[in-house]
Write a structure and sequence with these properties.
With 364 residues, this protein is of the alpha+beta class. It folds into two domains: 106 residues, Roll (Nuclear Transport Factor 2, Chain: A), CATH 3.10.450; 208 residues, Immunoglobulin-like (Sandwich), CATH 2.60.40.2550. The strands form four sheets. It has a six-stranded mixed sheet with strand order 2-1-6-5-4-3. The longest helix is centred in the N-terminal third of the chain and has 18 residues.
Protein backbone atom coordinates (compact mmCIF):
# COMPACT_ATOMS: atom_id res chain seq x y z
CA UNK A 1 0.00 0.00 0.00
CA UNK A 2 2.84 2.36 0.87
CA UNK A 3 4.37 1.55 -2.50
CA UNK A 4 1.23 2.69 -4.33
CA UNK A 5 0.96 5.87 -2.26
CA UNK A 6 4.56 6.71 -3.12
CA UNK A 7 3.85 6.28 -6.85
CA UNK A 8 0.76 8.55 -6.68
CA UNK A 9 2.72 11.28 -4.92
CA UNK A 10 5.59 10.93 -7.38
CA UNK A 11 3.28 11.29 -10.42
CA UNK A 12 1.51 14.32 -8.89
CA UNK A 13 4.86 15.96 -8.24
CA UNK A 14 6.00 15.39 -11.81
CA UNK A 15 2.76 16.85 -13.17
CA UNK A 16 3.12 19.96 -11.00
CA UNK A 17 6.71 20.43 -12.12
CA UNK A 18 5.80 19.94 -15.78
CA UNK A 19 3.01 22.49 -15.60
CA UNK A 20 5.39 25.04 -14.16
CA UNK A 21 7.67 24.73 -17.21
CA UNK A 22 5.14 26.47 -19.53
CA UNK A 23 3.85 30.07 -19.64
CA UNK A 24 0.38 30.55 -18.27
CA UNK A 25 -1.46 32.69 -20.84
CA UNK A 26 -4.50 33.03 -18.60
CA UNK A 27 -2.77 35.41 -16.21
CA UNK A 28 -4.71 38.69 -16.03
CA UNK A 29 -2.62 41.69 -17.09
CA UNK A 30 -1.75 44.01 -14.26
CA UNK A 31 -3.89 47.12 -13.89
CA UNK A 32 -0.63 48.92 -13.08
CA UNK A 33 0.67 48.48 -16.64
CA UNK A 34 1.90 51.66 -18.32
CA UNK A 35 2.31 50.41 -21.88
CA UNK A 36 -0.16 52.86 -23.40
CA UNK A 37 1.08 55.77 -21.31
CA UNK A 38 4.64 55.12 -22.43
CA UNK A 39 3.51 55.02 -26.07
CA UNK A 40 1.66 58.34 -25.84
CA UNK A 41 4.55 60.03 -24.03
CA UNK A 42 7.17 58.79 -26.50
CA UNK A 43 4.98 59.79 -29.47
CA UNK A 44 4.64 63.40 -28.38
CA UNK A 45 8.19 63.71 -27.08
CA UNK A 46 9.55 62.82 -30.53
CA UNK A 47 6.94 64.72 -32.55
CA UNK A 48 8.12 67.52 -34.82
CA UNK A 49 6.87 69.35 -37.89
CA UNK A 50 9.12 67.33 -40.19
CA UNK A 51 7.89 63.92 -39.01
CA UNK A 52 4.21 63.59 -38.13
CA UNK A 53 3.88 59.89 -38.99
CA UNK A 54 3.87 58.82 -35.31
CA UNK A 55 0.46 60.50 -34.97
CA UNK A 56 -0.96 58.29 -37.71
CA UNK A 57 0.32 55.22 -35.87
CA UNK A 58 -1.01 56.41 -32.50
CA UNK A 59 -4.65 56.84 -33.53
CA UNK A 60 -6.75 53.89 -34.71
CA UNK A 61 -8.65 54.16 -38.00
CA UNK A 62 -11.91 53.97 -36.02
CA UNK A 63 -10.85 56.69 -33.55
CA UNK A 64 -13.74 58.89 -32.40
CA UNK A 65 -13.75 61.22 -29.40
CA UNK A 66 -16.81 63.43 -28.87
CA UNK A 67 -17.43 63.54 -32.60
CA UNK A 68 -13.80 64.17 -33.60
CA UNK A 69 -12.41 61.44 -35.85
CA UNK A 70 -8.81 60.48 -36.57
CA UNK A 71 -8.32 62.88 -39.47
CA UNK A 72 -9.69 65.85 -37.54
CA UNK A 73 -7.68 65.03 -34.40
CA UNK A 74 -4.41 64.80 -36.34
CA UNK A 75 -5.23 68.04 -38.17
CA UNK A 76 -5.94 69.75 -34.84
CA UNK A 77 -2.54 68.74 -33.45
CA UNK A 78 -0.51 69.42 -36.60
CA UNK A 79 -2.10 72.87 -36.91
CA UNK A 80 -0.30 73.81 -33.68
CA UNK A 81 3.02 73.79 -35.55
CA UNK A 82 1.85 76.64 -37.79
CA UNK A 83 3.16 79.88 -36.37
CA UNK A 84 4.88 78.22 -33.39
CA UNK A 85 8.61 78.82 -33.10
CA UNK A 86 9.44 76.25 -30.43
CA UNK A 87 6.57 73.81 -29.95
CA UNK A 88 6.76 71.12 -27.28
CA UNK A 89 4.28 68.74 -25.68
CA UNK A 90 3.63 67.37 -22.22
CA UNK A 91 1.53 64.29 -21.44
CA UNK A 92 -0.04 63.54 -18.06
CA UNK A 93 -1.73 60.15 -17.61
CA UNK A 94 -3.73 59.95 -14.39
CA UNK A 95 -5.21 56.48 -14.91
CA UNK A 96 -4.49 53.44 -17.08
CA UNK A 97 -6.54 50.28 -16.53
CA UNK A 98 -6.22 47.10 -18.58
CA UNK A 99 -9.07 44.65 -19.13
CA UNK A 100 -7.49 41.61 -20.67
CA UNK A 101 -4.33 41.72 -22.73
CA UNK A 102 -5.75 43.66 -25.70
CA UNK A 103 -7.85 46.48 -24.19
CA UNK A 104 -7.21 49.43 -21.90
CA UNK A 105 -8.88 52.62 -20.72
CA UNK A 106 -7.11 55.86 -19.78
CA UNK A 107 -7.65 59.31 -18.36
CA UNK A 108 -5.00 61.71 -19.63
CA UNK A 109 -4.18 65.29 -20.60
CA UNK A 110 -2.20 66.76 -23.47
CA UNK A 111 -0.49 70.14 -23.15
CA UNK A 112 1.39 72.10 -25.82
CA UNK A 113 3.77 75.00 -25.30
CA UNK A 114 5.35 77.50 -27.65
CA UNK A 115 8.53 78.10 -25.72
CA UNK A 116 7.28 78.67 -22.17
CA UNK A 117 3.82 79.87 -23.22
CA UNK A 118 0.94 77.33 -23.12
CA UNK A 119 -0.95 77.20 -26.42
CA UNK A 120 -3.08 74.04 -26.16
CA UNK A 121 -4.71 71.89 -23.49
CA UNK A 122 -7.06 68.94 -23.92
CA UNK A 123 -8.48 66.47 -21.39
CA UNK A 124 -9.34 62.92 -22.45
CA UNK A 125 -11.45 60.83 -20.08
CA UNK A 126 -12.40 57.18 -20.53
CA UNK A 127 -10.14 57.03 -23.59
CA UNK A 128 -10.12 53.49 -24.95
CA UNK A 129 -7.05 51.78 -26.39
CA UNK A 130 -6.73 48.54 -28.31
CA UNK A 131 -3.76 46.33 -29.12
CA UNK A 132 -3.66 45.04 -32.69
CA UNK A 133 -0.77 43.33 -34.45
CA UNK A 134 1.35 43.82 -31.36
CA UNK A 135 0.87 47.60 -31.16
CA UNK A 136 -1.38 49.81 -29.05
CA UNK A 137 -3.61 52.46 -30.65
CA UNK A 138 -6.04 54.99 -29.22
CA UNK A 139 -9.73 54.55 -30.03
CA UNK A 140 -11.17 57.64 -28.32
CA UNK A 141 -14.34 57.36 -26.24
CA UNK A 142 -16.34 56.26 -29.32
CA UNK A 143 -18.93 58.94 -28.59
CA UNK A 144 -20.34 60.96 -31.46
CA UNK A 145 -20.80 64.69 -31.02
CA UNK A 146 -24.03 65.80 -29.40
CA UNK A 147 -23.79 69.18 -31.09
CA UNK A 148 -26.92 70.18 -32.98
CA UNK A 149 -25.69 72.04 -36.04
CA UNK A 150 -29.22 73.27 -36.77
CA UNK A 151 -29.12 75.44 -33.63
CA UNK A 152 -25.73 77.18 -33.80
CA UNK A 153 -24.55 79.32 -30.93
CA UNK A 154 -22.73 81.90 -33.04
CA UNK A 155 -21.98 82.79 -36.63
CA UNK A 156 -18.51 81.61 -37.67
CA UNK A 157 -16.82 83.96 -40.15
CA UNK A 158 -13.85 83.07 -42.38
CA UNK A 159 -11.98 85.77 -44.30
CA UNK A 160 -10.49 84.27 -47.47
CA UNK A 161 -7.75 86.03 -49.45
CA UNK A 162 -7.33 85.31 -53.15
CA UNK A 163 -7.10 86.97 -56.57
CA UNK A 164 -8.24 86.29 -60.12
CA UNK A 165 -5.89 83.76 -61.71
CA UNK A 166 -4.66 82.20 -58.46
CA UNK A 167 -3.80 78.62 -59.44
CA UNK A 168 -3.50 77.37 -55.84
CA UNK A 169 -6.84 78.75 -54.66
CA UNK A 170 -9.58 76.44 -56.09
CA UNK A 171 -9.17 73.71 -53.40
CA UNK A 172 -9.55 76.34 -50.69
CA UNK A 173 -12.59 77.93 -52.35
CA UNK A 174 -14.24 74.52 -52.73
CA UNK A 175 -13.58 73.60 -49.09
CA UNK A 176 -15.13 76.87 -47.92
CA UNK A 177 -18.19 76.29 -50.11
CA UNK A 178 -18.52 72.77 -48.68
CA UNK A 179 -18.41 74.17 -45.14
CA UNK A 180 -21.06 76.75 -46.00
CA UNK A 181 -23.33 74.02 -47.34
CA UNK A 182 -22.79 71.82 -44.29
CA UNK A 183 -23.15 74.51 -41.60
CA UNK A 184 -25.92 77.08 -41.47
CA UNK A 185 -23.86 79.16 -39.02
CA UNK A 186 -20.87 79.66 -41.32
CA UNK A 187 -20.05 82.29 -43.93
CA UNK A 188 -16.84 83.10 -45.78
CA UNK A 189 -15.87 86.47 -47.22
CA UNK A 190 -13.77 86.36 -50.38
CA UNK A 191 -11.35 89.30 -50.28
CA UNK A 192 -9.53 89.88 -53.57
CA UNK A 193 -6.08 91.38 -53.14
CA UNK A 194 -5.72 92.64 -56.72
CA UNK A 195 -7.95 94.00 -59.53
CA UNK A 196 -10.49 93.55 -60.94
CA UNK A 197 -12.25 92.73 -57.65
CA UNK A 198 -10.02 94.53 -55.18
CA UNK A 199 -11.99 97.10 -53.15
CA UNK A 200 -10.28 100.44 -52.65
CA UNK A 201 -9.85 101.19 -48.96
CA UNK A 202 -10.13 97.53 -47.90
CA UNK A 203 -7.18 97.14 -45.52
CA UNK A 204 -8.19 93.70 -44.20
CA UNK A 205 -5.39 91.86 -46.02
CA UNK A 206 -2.84 94.43 -44.84
CA UNK A 207 -4.05 94.18 -41.24
CA UNK A 208 -3.46 90.42 -41.20
CA UNK A 209 0.14 90.94 -42.31
CA UNK A 210 -0.03 90.23 -46.08
CA UNK A 211 -0.14 86.42 -45.68
CA UNK A 212 0.67 84.16 -48.62
CA UNK A 213 -2.14 83.43 -51.06
CA UNK A 214 -4.36 81.52 -50.49
CA UNK A 215 -4.93 82.21 -46.79
CA UNK A 216 -7.99 82.07 -44.55
CA UNK A 217 -8.49 83.72 -41.16
CA UNK A 218 -11.12 82.09 -38.93
CA UNK A 219 -13.01 84.33 -36.50
CA UNK A 220 -10.21 86.91 -36.66
CA UNK A 221 -7.83 84.63 -34.76
CA UNK A 222 -6.58 81.58 -36.67
CA UNK A 223 -4.60 82.23 -39.85
CA UNK A 224 -4.30 79.15 -42.09
CA UNK A 225 -2.19 79.45 -45.25
CA UNK A 226 -1.90 77.13 -48.23
CA UNK A 227 -4.05 74.40 -49.75
CA UNK A 228 -2.44 71.28 -48.28
CA UNK A 229 -4.61 68.44 -46.98
CA UNK A 230 -3.62 69.32 -43.42
CA UNK A 231 -4.52 72.98 -43.91
CA UNK A 232 -7.94 72.13 -45.34
CA UNK A 233 -8.62 69.56 -42.61
CA UNK A 234 -7.91 72.20 -39.97
CA UNK A 235 -10.93 74.17 -41.23
CA UNK A 236 -13.25 71.51 -39.79
CA UNK A 237 -11.47 71.59 -36.45
CA UNK A 238 -11.72 75.37 -36.22
CA UNK A 239 -15.36 75.28 -37.30
CA UNK A 240 -16.18 72.87 -34.47
CA UNK A 241 -14.17 74.93 -32.01
CA UNK A 242 -15.92 78.21 -32.72
CA UNK A 243 -19.38 76.68 -33.00
CA UNK A 244 -19.07 75.71 -29.33
CA UNK A 245 -18.66 79.35 -28.29
CA UNK A 246 -21.71 81.36 -27.36
CA UNK A 247 -22.60 84.55 -29.22
CA UNK A 248 -21.48 87.53 -27.13
CA UNK A 249 -23.53 90.00 -29.20
CA UNK A 250 -26.98 90.03 -30.74
CA UNK A 251 -27.59 92.06 -33.90
CA UNK A 252 -30.54 93.55 -35.74
CA UNK A 253 -30.42 95.04 -39.25
CA UNK A 254 -33.17 97.49 -40.14
CA UNK A 255 -34.20 99.74 -43.06
CA UNK A 256 -31.80 98.28 -45.62
CA UNK A 257 -31.94 100.10 -48.95
CA UNK A 258 -29.80 100.52 -52.07
CA UNK A 259 -29.84 103.80 -53.98
CA UNK A 260 -27.33 105.45 -56.34
CA UNK A 261 -24.74 102.71 -55.80
CA UNK A 262 -24.90 103.11 -52.02
CA UNK A 263 -26.21 100.56 -49.54
CA UNK A 264 -27.53 101.99 -46.29
CA UNK A 265 -29.07 100.43 -43.18
CA UNK A 266 -29.48 100.80 -39.44
CA UNK A 267 -27.72 98.39 -37.08
CA UNK A 268 -28.63 97.74 -33.46
CA UNK A 269 -26.52 95.53 -31.22
CA UNK A 270 -26.72 94.37 -27.63
CA UNK A 271 -24.22 92.53 -25.50
CA UNK A 272 -23.86 90.38 -22.44
CA UNK A 273 -22.36 92.05 -19.38
CA UNK A 274 -18.61 92.23 -18.93
CA UNK A 275 -17.54 92.92 -22.52
CA UNK A 276 -14.36 94.98 -22.85
CA UNK A 277 -14.97 97.54 -25.61
CA UNK A 278 -11.35 98.60 -26.02
CA UNK A 279 -10.35 98.40 -29.72
CA UNK A 280 -13.88 97.28 -30.66
CA UNK A 281 -15.19 98.01 -34.16
CA UNK A 282 -18.45 97.46 -35.98
CA UNK A 283 -17.68 96.01 -39.43
CA UNK A 284 -20.12 95.99 -42.32
CA UNK A 285 -19.34 94.13 -45.52
CA UNK A 286 -21.31 93.81 -48.75
CA UNK A 287 -20.66 90.71 -50.85
CA UNK A 288 -21.82 89.61 -54.26
CA UNK A 289 -23.18 86.09 -54.20
CA UNK A 290 -21.54 85.32 -57.54
CA UNK A 291 -19.18 87.07 -59.94
CA UNK A 292 -17.37 85.56 -62.91
CA UNK A 293 -13.74 85.62 -63.88
CA UNK A 294 -13.59 88.26 -66.65
CA UNK A 295 -10.85 86.26 -68.38
CA UNK A 296 -12.62 82.91 -67.97
CA UNK A 297 -16.39 83.47 -67.59
CA UNK A 298 -16.96 79.80 -66.73
CA UNK A 299 -15.10 80.32 -63.44
CA UNK A 300 -17.39 81.65 -60.72
CA UNK A 301 -16.32 83.33 -57.48
CA UNK A 302 -18.65 83.32 -54.46
CA UNK A 303 -19.23 85.79 -51.62
CA UNK A 304 -16.86 88.31 -53.16
CA UNK A 305 -16.40 91.48 -51.10
CA UNK A 306 -17.57 94.50 -53.12
CA UNK A 307 -17.89 97.11 -50.37
CA UNK A 308 -16.68 97.45 -46.79
CA UNK A 309 -16.84 99.85 -43.86
CA UNK A 310 -15.85 100.01 -40.21
CA UNK A 311 -16.33 102.30 -37.24
CA UNK A 312 -15.25 102.36 -33.62
CA UNK A 313 -17.88 101.56 -31.00
CA UNK A 314 -18.23 101.80 -27.23
CA UNK A 315 -20.62 100.42 -24.65
CA UNK A 316 -22.66 103.61 -25.03
CA UNK A 317 -23.60 102.56 -28.56
CA UNK A 318 -25.52 99.49 -27.40
CA UNK A 319 -29.24 99.31 -28.12
CA UNK A 320 -29.06 102.45 -30.26
CA UNK A 321 -29.54 102.50 -34.05
CA UNK A 322 -26.24 103.08 -35.87
CA UNK A 323 -26.51 104.39 -39.42
CA UNK A 324 -24.17 102.67 -41.87
CA UNK A 325 -23.55 103.19 -45.58
CA UNK A 326 -21.35 101.35 -48.07
CA UNK A 327 -20.31 102.52 -51.52
CA UNK A 328 -20.89 99.85 -54.18
CA UNK A 329 -19.25 99.43 -57.60
CA UNK A 330 -21.21 100.22 -60.74
CA UNK A 331 -21.14 96.56 -61.77
CA UNK A 332 -22.44 95.24 -58.44
CA UNK A 333 -24.74 92.25 -59.09
CA UNK A 334 -28.30 92.54 -57.85
CA UNK A 335 -28.01 89.47 -55.58
CA UNK A 336 -25.84 89.87 -52.53
CA UNK A 337 -25.56 89.96 -48.76
CA UNK A 338 -24.84 92.46 -46.04
CA UNK A 339 -22.81 91.05 -43.16
CA UNK A 340 -22.30 92.95 -39.92
CA UNK A 341 -20.05 91.87 -37.08
CA UNK A 342 -18.19 93.32 -34.13
CA UNK A 343 -14.46 92.68 -33.92
CA UNK A 344 -11.73 93.46 -31.41
CA UNK A 345 -9.08 94.95 -33.68
CA UNK A 346 -5.95 95.90 -31.72
CA UNK A 347 -3.12 97.64 -33.52
CA UNK A 348 -0.94 94.88 -34.96
CA UNK A 349 -2.47 91.46 -35.59
CA UNK A 350 -1.25 88.68 -33.30
CA UNK A 351 -4.03 86.08 -33.58
CA UNK A 352 -6.06 88.35 -31.33
CA UNK A 353 -8.61 90.09 -33.58
CA UNK A 354 -11.59 88.15 -32.28
CA UNK A 355 -14.85 88.34 -34.22
CA UNK A 356 -17.98 88.21 -32.07
CA UNK A 357 -20.49 86.35 -34.20
CA UNK A 358 -22.46 88.47 -36.69
CA UNK A 359 -25.65 88.82 -38.70
CA UNK A 360 -26.35 88.33 -42.40
CA UNK A 361 -29.19 89.71 -44.49
CA UNK A 362 -29.77 88.87 -48.16
CA UNK A 363 -30.86 91.40 -50.76
CA UNK A 364 -31.71 91.35 -54.46
Amino acid sequence: MKKYMFLVLLIAGLMFTACDRFDNNLTKPSEESHEVRDLIVSTFESLDAEDLEPLDALFHEDYLYDGIDKEARIAEITALFEGAENLSFEVKVTSEKHTGSMNAELDWQLFAFDGQEPCYEELFTAEKAIKENGSWQLLGNLVDSDEDEDTPTQLVIAEYFTFVGCSNCPPVAQKLKDLAQAHSNFIFLEHHTAPPYFVQGNDTYTYYGHPSIPSVVFQGQNLVSGNSDDALASYDVLMDQYTEESAAFEYTIEDLSISDETLSAKVVFSSEDGIDFEDMYLNYVVVANEVSNPFNPAEIFNNVVRGIGRESITANDMNKPIDISVELPANMPSDGKLLIYIQKRPEGFDSNARIYSGEVIDFN
